[in-house]
Amino acid sequence: MGDELVAVYDEAGAVVGSATRQDMRARGLWHAAGQVLVLSRDGESAYVHRRSPDKDVFPGLYDCWAGGVVSAGETPRECAYRELAEELGISGVPLESLFTHVFVQPPHRCHTFTFSVHWDGPVVLQPEEITSGGWMSLAELETWAKDPASPFIPDGRAGVLEWFRRYR
């Protein structure tokens, strides 16, 4: 996975080249992620999962976004579809484009392209990346995301707080 080519972005959000994932992480290069918030069909819950302890970034923490780093030659939307299928086994559903936000917590510098889907079908976790998951009410998710002591992934927290600010 370290030799996988990822898209490198500039601070303004334009693609400027590619680098290996390992080099991007080591040098703190700007990159992008495609992330999907999976909401229940009734819009009252979101799917929350725990990241594997083997993840290269924020291992073992919880997240409400299925997603990952945009590969070289891939659009953020293509990345979001790919990651949604890989991580949660969800495919064949339309993505709703939400917003883009910037997450900076050195050495992490990322343009995060967010999407959502409504889903009540089966969820099939990718065991290499996710150890467990389940549905959480939006009220509980908002409380959890606002609590800095909760074991929530920092970029996921920033994204879902922005989602609550914009859509709830």
Question: Using DSSP, what is the number of strands?
Answer: 9
* Average pLDDT taken over every residue: 96
Structural class: alpha+beta
> In the CATH hierarchy, what is the architecture at level 2?
Alpha-Beta Complex
Cα Rg: 15 Å
The portion of residues assigned to helices is 25-40%
pLDDT below 50 for ≥5 consecutive residues: which ranges? none
Element pattern in H and E:
EEHEEEEHEEEHH
- Ends apart, CA distance between termini: 37 Å
Strand content: 35-45%
The CATH topology comes to Nucleoside Triphosphate Pyrophosphohydrolase
Provide the CATH top-level class. Answer: Alpha Beta
The number of domains: 1
Strand order of the largest sheet: 6-3-8-7
User: Describe the biggest sheet?
Assistant: 4 strands, mixed
Q: What spatial form do the alpha-carbon principal axes imply?
A: globular
CATH homologous superfamily classification: Nucleoside Triphosphate Pyrophosphohydrolase
The number of helical elements comes to 4
Word description of this protein:
By secondary structure, the chain is an alpha+beta fold. It has a single domain, classed as Nucleoside Triphosphate Pyrophosphohydrolase (Alpha-Beta Complex). Helices cover 26% and strands 38% of the residues. It has a four-stranded mixed beta sheet with strand order 6-3-8-7, sandwiched between helices. A three-stranded antiparallel beta sheet has the order 5-4-9. It has a two-stranded antiparallel sheet with strand order 1-2. Strand 7 and strand 8 form a beta hairpin. The longest helix has 14 residues. The chain starts with a strand and ends with a helix.
